[in-house]
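yo

u said u wanted the structure for the complex thing, so here. seqs first:
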Amino acid sequence: MREQHVADESAEGDRALAVSAQNGDADAFAALLHRHDDAMRGVVWRVAGSANAMDDILQEAYVKAWRNLGGFQHESAFSTWLYAIVYHSAIDWQRKQRPMTELHDATATASPDHATRVVESFALRDALAALSAEHLCVVSLIDGEGRSYDDVAELLGLSAGTVASRLHRARALLRSALGETNETGDAQ
Amino acid sequence: MNTNEPVLPRSPAPEHGPDFWARIDDELRKDDELPKTEELSTTSPGDETVTAISSRSARVSKRSSSRVLAMAAGVFVLVGIGAFALFAGPGDADPATELVVESTAPTDLGGSAAAQVPTAETAESVPIAAAPAPVPTALAVVEGSASQGDSTNDEADSTIDVAIAEGAVLATTPVYLPSDTSSLDAATLLGTWTEQRLSWFNWIDEAESCESHRYSEISYVNEAGLMLPFSDLGRTFSGAVSHFTPSPNNQQVAWLASCESQLELYIAKLLPTPGQVADVRLAWVGEGSTSVAFMLWDGSTVSLNTLGVDGVPFFVDVDVAAQAVTDSSRPVDPGGPDDIGSIVVGATSTGAFTYWNAPAPTPAPSCDGTDNTLWVRNAQGTWLQAVAEVPVSTVVAFDIDSVLSLVAFADACDGANAARVMVGTLRGDGLISSIRVIELGPFAPGSVSELFWVEPNLLRIHTDNSEFGGGVLRYDYVFDEGRDGGILVQLDA
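structre next:
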């Protein structure tokens, strides 16, 4: 009865669900996943770049979390614990990817407008891929998903100050990377 | 452009595919038995049991000559003492010098055991991910307690009195692996803290040269398989970390970071928080061998013993309580300062320049009431005052960004200057010029206790607020382009 689990949205509710899940209640665990899935998708989406890859990464991470749930000691928020597993799964996936297709392959048959959009989209994706995982998560969740600093701080187990610092840095790096791309493009 | 504007367009993640949750449900139902907490307490989530011998250890073994191995093994037999009752790991004793006993027979770990003593050639180290079956049992052999044997165990062997040295690598010592074991490709096991159920690892960025201060970092993995930073995020080292040797009695831990023959001995405070450290200090810099090195704690002193590049043995004792170093290999430099501060302040990653506190030749205004200033010693033993542009007192924190040749340091000052940081450029002769002083005083009331470069434009600063009844507060100083300004972000509430 998943609906019953969704009622209590507090951290205490997370704790109760996690305890039930640790006792083998798969419904309780599924309810926890539903609670935090939006945030986890927000993290993985920017890394994966496609809905299919996002689903694959999250499926692997969620199953891994379920199998390792016995090790969750309730010393952190459940979302922080889950995030760590999702984060490592996403980064692992990213490491295994081959270099992306060259831009000219993707744009060779496209119209000028479409090609421009594709180039911009690829440039942003390249810039995002160049960010460290820590920066990527923060900028994805705050700028990409519209989440608050406090939300992200709680999710990542950081202070709000660290979140602010990382966001500032991530934006600067993105701005720099996109600026360099444009300059390169202009030069050509 | 406002630098605080988002660059990334708002674009929420897409919904899952139609069968995503059905697949998750299937997976959850598939696992009839959930792992119990007790089962996870001694093994990693990946259910892998391996000996605490690392892939880096294997590389070290290959580099070592049999002569050096034999010599080192002899040293270990004679010493035969570890001060690491609670710890086990290759950092405690270089695996190239371990006496590894492989036995398929049941082993009485509490006393005598069937054992064979391998030759240097058979003392092979095993990569982390390649767990052998059966798992080898490692025993340290007390002097005269065992003889060279063949590959079989017999009744006579089983009567040999073999004691387990404290810190020996045992098959029963668990290794806590990350949930994502593929990340171990670039990792080296440093040791396991059995009582706290965690293992420390050194992760190496193969894209960097070992001279880069971003070459490697240390993390720990807890029993849940979560990988956590052992210090501040961004705290990295030039060189591979080895000989990670904790001392719970002193609440200290020491380790080596090595790049080619360059050795850096670090010491840090072991925090009550499991696995984490604070107050990371470079205590000694020199040249020597890691493959024959060993470290052990004796009271508040940690001793490093190894061979120099000339093959001559030497030792370094660092008394943490007294902040004193005894270095049996240290040359006496003619023309150098009379009274060198015992602890090295910092060093370039190649070891070409080391930095020290020592009295200034001409007493100058100093804000800490001493005559100390910062000196640089080059590899030829020539000493110079490192900073000429501004008066510098006793330096308490120092770090070099080897990529951009930037140096950041803080000296001990009172009052309004208690929290000031200086940033300069490292010149080819080791001097530091183009000094810029960053006054943190209005924002950071404590005194600077530690600093390091996280990125070329980001300096992490720790301040000690104990005089105000507080603890350590951390700040990030983010430089603007051109380094004319920057913003200070407080990381701790």
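Chain B touches chain A through 54 residues (CB under 8 Å). The helical segments of chain B are 20-30, 37-40, 55-63, 66-79, 155-158.
cya
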